[in-house]
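Late entry, evening session. Most of the bench is empty. Finally got around to the prediction I had been postponing all week. Sequence below, unchanged from the version circulated by S.P.
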Amino acid sequence: MIYTVFALRKRATHTIPSKDLRFYICSLSSKSIVYKGLLTPLQLWEYFADFVDPDYETHFAVVHSRFSTNTFPSWERAHPHRYLAHNGEINTIRGNENQMRAREGVMSSSKYGDELKLLYPVVEEGLPDSGRVDNVLEFLIMAGGRSLPEAVMTMVPEAWHKDTMMSEEKRNFYRWASFAMEAWDGPALFTFADGRYVGAILDRNGLRPSRYYITKSGFMVMASEVGVCNLAPEDTQSKSRLKPGRMLLVDTELGEVINDADIKHHIATLRPVKQWMDEQSVTLDDFYKAHMETRGEEPEIGPLVPVQSDHRLAMFGYSVEHINLLLVPMVKNKKEPLGSMGNDAPLACLSQRNPLVFEYFKQLFAQVTNPPIDPIRESIVMSLACPIGPEDNILEPSEKQCNRLFLDAPILTLHDLEIIKDTSLRTWKTKTIDTTFPVEAGFAGLVPAIDRICAECSEAAEQGYTLLVLSDRAAGPERVPVSSLLALGATHHHLIKTRQRLHVGLIVETGEAREMHHLCLLLGYGADAICPYLLYECLISLHEQSLLGVDFGIKEIQKRVIAATEKGISKVMAKMGISLLQSYKGAQIFEAVGLSQEVIDKCFVGTASRLGGATFEILAEEVRQHIKTVL
């Protein structure tokens, strides 16, 4: 019955609301009742007669009271939601929501069958971040067959990547869960209940307060601070605080508090996840081994053009300052070079120097109660490792979810990319999509080129390709490069719209990207991996001419660049309080300054651009000015 009621409520939520009609159902559950409103705590007792009825009893209660800060107050946005109440922010919410929409293209359910599509979209419109988390949590329980504690563990994992003290079983579970879903990341304390379980979990950084008491008389009280309830000291059995990533759980059927280690061990050993991962998941090492077995040798890097005569550098907007002040120090010091505070360069929309599309964007950063992370001292909670490639059905756990490529970092070397392009390992196959268009097409060629790229990617997904490489290597005197950011953003959102995004992984092979800001923008708008080939080739050319100032081999140069980019990407993520690259990807933690709405709607859906400005025609003209350098 409970599943029928859930389906009824989802269908009603999707079909009844209209432009002039607000409609929201609090719970519609046989196990719990949600009372909410724009009320003070004392007004609850006067407004809801149940609370003063002596015959009305409950075995648990989740109470949430606060002023609305980040959203305009409304009845449906008030806490608690159907399963949880929440104190904090989900910084990756836009990416999480996009990913959930993309999963609708690969999900299936033996429980709901063809009616599963009637439950879409999973994430309902007009809700705050906590409401959207609640939508997905409920969906994993009702359609995914998970218990409430397991669904919470999947969405809010501990910092498992670098925790050497974690048990192997729990580490394997979190790794397997990451193949199916990215973490919903941000400083947050979640309290949750479904009628049987009631509990709480704290984010991996522990950036929200939580204290709890267990009494001898059989009660457990948890609150964001001490003193919310008057408890007799002599009745206190134990008291403590909730620690980062830990879960506090009461099973009301058993009538006991379940230890964090016990519940997580139980959930982690429900399925043979280690066996699944060993049999199905692949790494770059596996790609290299398969390549060596078939080809017998590693791919070679083609002949390089000397820096002094490489017209591609000017075409992609490089300058002498870029090379000397940004690129060379990355090799020498294995970190992003430091500069003075502030940036006095004109806004891209006002510049006369034909800026790259990247320069129209500004990074968002954590503010007020949403603290940043220290990427050095708190590096244990951060990770750039993530799986890429096709995702399988999240609703029915199986070994198929592990058939993904697990990367330790998102930046690929020249050799890595050639190995990926040439792979024939198991079901993996790669297609390269050209992101350039003929010079003679002029201004009018840009939008049709973007449409062609999207169509080719969609067709490749239908043909069963697992990895798509968006490449501008063909750029030159006769071919104009589409900005890698425009091509990627349009393709990413097009595939989400057609529900094909999770059928493929998107890799960007670009000559444009060389700054941390460029790399983070590509990741933030959906890139699974990036190969900045011109950056590498420029440095290798300098090395071959003994102009680099240090004596490193070709592979060592690339490794040092990757080490520098890892630190730089981590620093940018940390500004926004995000710990995991897997959650940062596609989260669009940027705002545009001076881009027109037509560009936003086609390539950067959901990004704020308050000023308007550059159209596709203006962007095409800026690219054309760079092309003049090679004509």
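Two things to note before I forget:
The chain has two domains: 2-278, 281-339+346-624.
Residues 281-339+346-624 form a domain with the TIM Barrel fold (CATH 3.20.20.70).
Will write this up properly tomorrow.
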